[in-house]
């Protein structure tokens, strides 16, 4: 859930390094005279920050702000933990990577022995759930899952010393110091644990994934670290799109790996990473790091600017590289389509080319029409009318099809079929929401979302 | 393009002064270079740009050195056509091995055309990064502004760039 944001006044505090683990947060200094924004440190050679926010969009925006505004020769460590979120890479396709309906159903806030959703995919009334935020980050790489049992670490440094393994190795050393001996960096620059599984033998499970962003003057390496996530059993459902077999996307596809927890506490892990970072770069004078609160971050104009970009549906969905959606094997995408998608008449075919969320070309055929001979080919008229539709703004494909051609006989079946494929809300649950609307609505339920709508540009 | 290789580093002061002083003479000389050939120059961030003989248009891309250092390029995020940019602006990005690396405008210019073929075949940038012909790894064609011409004067020619990358590789 959201971190408390009602702290007034201050914000720059330092955490003593060797604090007993899992204690309450350090006392807040409330005298306004001592209020100094965390940005006062941006010119120091070594900087360490920890965010108290659990908002994934805000934390990534603070990180981006540090990347852009810190001194080009400085080296920075930033640590943060997010509420449940699925984070896709810069050049990925959410319709391929993510089950959007499952994200909206959400995850139980406490472990429950019962199923979280009923037969219709609606959350059970007696299970408290939190929806999973969908985030597109600015760095490359594949899709990862974050929650309270996962701590993210991020190192920003001059490109001169950039090395894809250097800071993953730093985290490995931190984990070993905490007694997790079986960790190493693999050839994909991920951190894995080599576990001995009975009857299976040695098996590597991924505990941390890496991604990088390189700008003209700076390089950023950030990674996840699954510590004690309670949601490992749900991650696969969240990361399997219903339509992955129908879509061929340009850009980057995720590589699936078995995952595991390392089993240490968040504070413990953060302290150990800070310790290793200081062994590499010094900066002991910074103590355990500067605490960055939600409120002070939102007071930075640049952070808010980045935040607006990151939360906009045009970034999350509109940045998607070109893809084709096809009900049948094509020359470009010859995969056999699974039978679960053969709900319609066997004659039915659909092929869309979608660029940045906008339908560039559509070709539908095999549909039944009322008055099929009344002027022009009905398939062509329908296909033409779908061009330029922005799929992330479609609220209900039944309505979209109806508007494109009023003569389709099976308009409801076809519309629901497309609603399923493109991850729209199960109709009837809560009005008609496009995937973009759903993202906006989910954001509006959060502190950061409320702040953004209150302070519009 | 950011510096990316393990050992890439911001130029040492000695190298720096070489770059700053070199373009002046080259810039002056360029007027007498054969009119039909484009002139190619490089940025410290490893972009190249060809300036046409009439100095009105250009073609840009990322250098062979950078393409090698980046590793397998899996996606090229192309600039927006029609966009006017100043030198150093991020105009696009290439993704390789989980890294999104900005492509920066080497000079002030207006993007007139982008190499759409790279979206489908991003590996072209690894194969022929400095090829400005059809099927090559060039990123964009541009219209050069007055400021752009001045920016161009401050870039490195191929000899200076070679020295620059050799110095980076030493570390």
From TrEMBL, chain A:
Which residue ranges does the record assign to the BPL/LPL catalytic domain?
Answer: 71-285
Sorted alphabetically, the Gene Ontology cellular component annotations on this record are: mitochondrion
Which Pfam families does the record cross-reference, listed alphabetically? LplA-B_cat
Q: Name one GO molecular function term.
A: lipoyltransferase activity
* Family annotation (InterPro entries): aa-tRNA-synth_II/BPL/LPL (IPR045864), BPL_LPL_catalytic (IPR004143), LipoylTrfase_LipoateP_Ligase (IPR004562)
Q: In which pathway does it act?
A: Protein modification; protein lipoylation via exogenous pathway; protein N(6)-(lipoyl)lysine from lipoate: step 2/2
| Biological process terms in GO annotation | protein lipoylation
Q: What does this protein do?
A: Catalyzes both the ATP-dependent activation of exogenously supplied lipoate to lipoyl-AMP and the transfer of the activated lipoyl onto the lipoyl domains of lipoate-dependent enzymes.
Indicate the family of this protein: Belongs to the LplA family.
* Name of the protein in its database record: Putative lipoate-protein ligase A
Organism of derivation: Chaetomium strumarium
**Phylogenetic placement of the source organism:** Eukaryota, Fungi, Dikarya, Ascomycota, Pezizomycotina
UniProtKB/TrEMBL annotation, chain B:
**Residue ranges of the Lipoyl-binding domain?**
57-143
Q: Quote the InterPro entries the UniProt record gives.
A: 2-oxoA_DH_lipoyl-BS (IPR003016), Biotin_lipoyl (IPR000089), GCV_H (IPR002930), GCV_H/Fam206 (IPR033753), GCV_H_sub (IPR017453), Single_hybrid_motif (IPR011053)
- Note accompanying the cofactor annotation: Binds 1 lipoyl cofactor covalently.
Q: Which PROSITE patterns match?
A: BIOTINYL_LIPOYL (PS50968), LIPOYL (PS00189)
User: What are its GO cellular component terms?
Assistant: glycine cleavage complex; mitochondrion
Q: Which SUPFAM superfamilies match?
A: Single hybrid motif (SSF51230)
Q: Does the keyword Mitochondrion apply?
A: yes
Coiled-coil residue windows: none
Keywords attached to this entry: Lipoyl, Mitochondrion, Transit peptide
Q: What does this protein do?
A: The H protein shuttles the methylamine group of glycine from the P protein to the T protein.
Q: Which NCBIfam families match?
A: gcvH, PRK01202.1
- HAMAP family with a match to the protein in the record: GcvH
- Provide the assembly information: The glycine cleavage system is composed of four proteins: P, T, L and H.
Belongs to which family? Belongs to the GcvH family.
**What is this protein's name?**
Glycine cleavage system H protein
């Amino acid at each position: 859930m959201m971190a408390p944001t009602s702290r007034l006044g201050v914000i720059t505090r330092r955490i003593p390094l060797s604090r007993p683990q899992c204690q309450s947060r350090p006392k807040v200094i409330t005298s306004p005279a001592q209020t100094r924004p965390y940005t006062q440190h941006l010119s120091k050679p070594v900087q360490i920050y920890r965010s108290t926010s659990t908002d994934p969009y805000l934390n990534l925006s603070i990180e981006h702000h540090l990347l852009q505004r810190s001194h080009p020769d400085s080296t920075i460590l930033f640590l943060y933990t997010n509420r449940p979120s699925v984070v896709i890479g810069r050049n990925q396709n959410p319709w391929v990577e993510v089950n959007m309906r499952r994200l909206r159903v959400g995850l139980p806030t406490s472990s429950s022995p019962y199923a979280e959703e009923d037969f219709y995919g609606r959350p059970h009334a007696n299970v408290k759930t939190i929806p999973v935020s969908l985030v597109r980050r600015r760095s490359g790489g594949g899709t990862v899952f974050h929650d309270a049992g996962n701590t993210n670490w991020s190192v920003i440094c001059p490109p001169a010393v950039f090395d894809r393994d250097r800071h993953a190795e730093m985290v490995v050393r931190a984990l070993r110091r905490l007694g997790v001996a079986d960790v190493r960096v693999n050839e994909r620059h991920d951190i894995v644990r080599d576990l001995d599984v009975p009857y299976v033998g040695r098996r590597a499970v991924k505990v941390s994934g890496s991604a990088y962003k390189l700008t003209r003057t700076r390089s950023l390496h950030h990674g996840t670290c699954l510590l004690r996530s309670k949601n490992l059993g749900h991650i696969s459902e969240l990361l399997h799109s219903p339509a992955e077999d129908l879509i061929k996307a340009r850009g980057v596809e995720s590589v699936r790996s078995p995952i595991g927890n390392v089993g240490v506490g968040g504070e413990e892990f953060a302290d150990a990473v800070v310790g290793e970072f200081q062994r590499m770069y010094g900066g002991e004078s910074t103590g355990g790091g500067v605490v960055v609160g939600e409120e002070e971050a939102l007071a930075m104009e640049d952070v808010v600017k980045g935040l607006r970009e990151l939360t906009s549906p045009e970034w999350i969905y509109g940045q998607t590289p070109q893809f084709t959606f096809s009900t049948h094997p094509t020359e470009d995408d010859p995969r056999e389509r699974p039978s679960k998608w053969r709900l319609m008449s066997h004659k039915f075919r659909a092929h869309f080319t979608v660029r940045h969320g906008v339908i560039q070309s559509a070709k539908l055929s095999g549909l039944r029409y009322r008055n099929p001979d009344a002027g022009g080919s009905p398939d062509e008229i329908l296909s033409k009318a779908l061009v330029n539709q922005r799929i992330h703004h479609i609220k209900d494909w039944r309505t979209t099809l109806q508007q494109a051609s009023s003569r389709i006989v099976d308009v409801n079946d076809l519309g629901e079929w497309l609603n399923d494929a493109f991850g729209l809300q199960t109709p009837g649950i809560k009005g008609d929401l496009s995937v973009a609307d759903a993202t906006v609505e989910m954001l509006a339920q959060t502190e950061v979302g409320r702040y953004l709508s209150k302070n519009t540009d | 393009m950011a510096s990316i290789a393990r050992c890439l580093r911001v130029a040492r002061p000695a190298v720096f002064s070489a770059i700053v002083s070199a373009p002046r003479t080259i810039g002056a000389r360029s007027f007498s270079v054969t009119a039909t050939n484009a002139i190619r120059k490089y940025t410290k961030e490893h972009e190249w740009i060809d300036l046409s003989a009439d100095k009105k248009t250009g073609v840009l891309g990322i250098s062979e050195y950078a393409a090698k250092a980046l590793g397998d390029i899996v996606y090229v995020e192309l600039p927006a056509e029609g966009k006017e940019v100043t030198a150093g602006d991020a105009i696009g990005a290439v993704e390789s091995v989980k890294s999104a690396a900005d492509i920066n405008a080497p000079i002030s210019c207006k993007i007139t055309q982008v190499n759409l073929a790279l979206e489908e075949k991003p590996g072209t940038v690894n194969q022929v990064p400095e090829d400005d012909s059809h099927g090559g790894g060039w990123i964009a064609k541009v219209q050069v502004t007055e400021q752009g011409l001045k920016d161009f004067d401050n870039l490195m020619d191929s000899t200076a760039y070679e020295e620059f990358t050799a110095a980076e590789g030493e570390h």
